[in-house]
Amino acid sequence: MKALAAKRLRLHGFNNLTKSLSFSMYDICYTRTIEDRNSYIAYIDEMYNAERLTTILTNVANIIGAHILSVAQQDYDPIGSSVTILVSEEQARGKEEQVESPGPVPDEILAHLDKSHLAVHTYPEYHPDDGISTFRVDIEVSTCGHISPLKALNYLMQSFETDVVTIDYRVRGFTRDITGRKLFIDHKINSIQNYIPNEIKQRFDMIDVNIYQENIFHTKCKLKEFDLDNYLFGVSADELHPSARQKITERILKEMDEIFFGRNMS
Known about the structure:
alpha+beta
């Protein structure tokens, strides 16, 4: 029996610009014992398993008005998960104004796109001997068409507990207007920060590194407030000796700074 051929998608009036949003979110934890460390890794791995990540990416597809074509999801042994979703154009729902503002939450359809993929990968890991564990989530929203994937940033940043975030946005390729003139970007953008709500921005120290002439935008975020109890697993700060609390605090803050600045610190 002949295999059934996949249904071909008919594309018309396609916008060839590719807009890619990729960012990494980091959650940092301190554990005193190997047992606590293993429990934390198991907890965070289950909390962000492939099923939950699929739900998050499905909500992203709804936010940007995309039709899901296929879903591939995988939980890895011993740790980690991945999800990839391919999507195609849905019917436009009114004219989309491309302004720098935070996107909606999942109960609202914002716009449409022509074709795209959404991907998420998790990376739980730990320091071999100083008690620090770091959970990283990498997410990519890549679209071809009118809509900017930055409209999904508001929802995504609210979907994960995070201490440090690094965000990259780039527009690649070109499309043409009706006269044949090339367009290397089809919307104005000054900063990724403009797509993040004020209530979230107030929680972070933020730095921009942008190359405007190349349509490359980069933003780094580090949580301002520090409460040691939020970084301990299996123990509370009150149970620790003051000198231990100070040493653990220094280790955690150093971990955050090294991730934020992208270099090891002595």
